[in-house]
TrEMBL record:
Source organism: uncultured Thermomicrobiales bacterium
Protein name according to UniProt: Protein RecA
Keywords recorded for this protein, A-Z: ATP-binding, DNA recombination, Nucleotide-binding
SUPFAM superfamilies assigned: P-loop containing nucleoside triphosphate hydrolases
Matches recorded under PANTHER family: MITOCHONDRIAL DNA REPAIR PROTEIN RECA HOMOLOG-RELATED (PTHR45900:SF1), RECA (PTHR45900)
Length: 341
């Protein structure tokens, strides 16, 4: 029995067992927790591109070292949210990459969302195994802050391709769900201790008889591996006051949260040009927390008059980036979240 061994012999036998495991499965596969450096609690998440979603997660954004799934119907705003996350991380000095499995990524849409095209790493995989292998290699490099994939349903339409490397040895006959299961299993290992947050977009399938109403491509693999699942749903078209529409209001619901409490909600406005209306979101959240109030001169933040009405206040925040950033940081601080230096 282990209790009959001397402490020295027990330690030696444990060390021998760990050495055998590392020789068989590779270094670092098993470690004592005291040997793992603690992660900076103020840097455990990346900006999501939406202040409301940052607050709803309770982390201040999307978790590093984990997979986030943006799940919604076609034209629900999930791709705009992904682009906004890439742009927000670039503004914070981060390095971002995007894997275009659909072949539909448009430079104009990226620019509209604020993405700096000169510093964006954009990959175009030729097959589904290639897409997952690229995702794993980029996640494993430990240099990226945000890594996006558009989209999970597109993996079904890409050819299975000839397997390359050791990641997928016999995938020609496997369907997309089994392909995704293997790919995500390897990706989970690559993300261990990684500062990269992986963001995948996925479609919400229409209900069918005798099937669950909440269905998505990829089988159960993505539901299992995603630490955060955000359901994206259009709510209403917002009029512009002149007979047209200025934006689409979109609801965000945290359907799964391994690192916190699920059920958090947020709302964003996606302008008809494809970009998120950050000014409208900041203004709404500022009023909710009591920072922005209605005064005799209109909407005010402390001694600063933002505008006589909401439309003018939105325009002021659109045109004055420093003012918008200051209010953004004040809202984060009011919720107890760290503010970027």
């Amino acid at each position: 029995m282990a209790g009959q061994l001397s402490p020295t012999r027990r330690t030696r036998q444990i060390d021998d067992a760990l050495a055998a495991i590392e020789a068989r499965f590779g270094p670092g596969v098993v470690r004592r927790l005291r040997d793992i450096p603690p992660r900076d609690p103020t840097d455990r998440a990346i900006p999501s591109g939406s202040l409301g979603l940052d607050l709803a997660t309770g982390l201040g954004g999307l978790p590093r070292g984990h997979v986030t799934e943006l799940l919604g119907a076609e034209s629900s705003g999930k791709t705009a949210l992904l682009y906004a996350a890439l742009a927000a991380n670039q503004r914070a000095g981060g390095i971002v990459a995007l894997i275009d499995a659909e072949g539909t990524v448009d430079a104009g849409a990226l620019l509209a969302c604020g993405v700096d095209l000169a510093d964006l790493l954009l990959a175009h995989p030729a097959s589904a195994p290639d897409a997952l292998l690229m995702l794993t290699i980029l996640a494993h490099c430990q240099a990226l802050d945000a890594l996006g994939l558009v989209s999970i349903p597109a993996l079904r339409d890409l050819p299975a391709g000839r397997a390359r490397g050791s990641l997928h040895g016999e995938l020609a006959a496997l369907d997309a769900a089994r392909l995704l299961t293997r790919g995500l299993r390897v990706l989970a290992v690559a993300l261990k201790d990684s500062p990269t947050a992986v963001i995948l977009t996925n479609d919400l399938l229409p209900p069918m008889p005798d099937r669950p109403a909440f269905r998505s491509p990829g089988g159960l693999a993505l539901r299992h591996h995603a630490a955060l699942r955000v359901a994206v749903a259009p709510l209403a078209l917002l009029p512009d006051g002149s007979g047209g529409y200025r934006a689409l209001r979109v609801g965000l619901t945290i359907a799964k949260h391994k690192l916190g409490t699920p059920g958090g909600t947020a709302e964003i406005e996606v302008r008809l040009g494809g970009a998120l209306d950050h000014a409208a979101e900041i203004l709404r959240l500022g009023r909710a927390v009591g920072l922005v109030e209605s005064g005799s001169t209109g909407l005010v933040w402390g001694a600063i008059t933002l505008g006589r009405d909401e439309a003018r206040a939105r325009r002021a925040l659109h045109t004055d980036a420093d003012l918008a950033r200051a209010l953004h940081d004040a809202i984060r601080a009011a919720h107890g979240l760290p503010v970027a230096a």
